[in-house]
Amino acid sequence: MYLSFSSLTGFDPRGNQRDRDRERASARKQAAAKGKEDGLTPEQRRERDKKALEEKLAKKAAQAGAGGASQDNKSNEGNATSKK
């Protein structure tokens, strides 16, 4: 008569790796799907992203125009080497 260890104790010594992996995979899928539910069509999403990118670039250009020259000089001061 053969009795396995798991049938006597209710404990499987090999663990439940498959079950845990399935749970983790389903949790990842749910988290990924949750971010896409913004109620927008792909075209609307592209327009939104395009507008956000243009605003970001305009802000960066404004910062570069206002104080970009002083930023460049400060970052290059330490890099200057004298050749004699």
From TrEMBL:
Domain of life: Eukaryota
Residue ranges of every copy of the Small EDRK-rich factor-like N-terminal domain listed in the record: 14-46
Compositional bias annotation for Basic and acidic residues: 15-26, 34-58
Stretches with biased composition (Polar residues): 70-84
Region (Disordered): 1-84
Pfam families: SERF-like_N
Family designation: Belongs to the SERF family.
Protein name (record): Small EDRK-rich factor 2
Organism: Carex littledalei
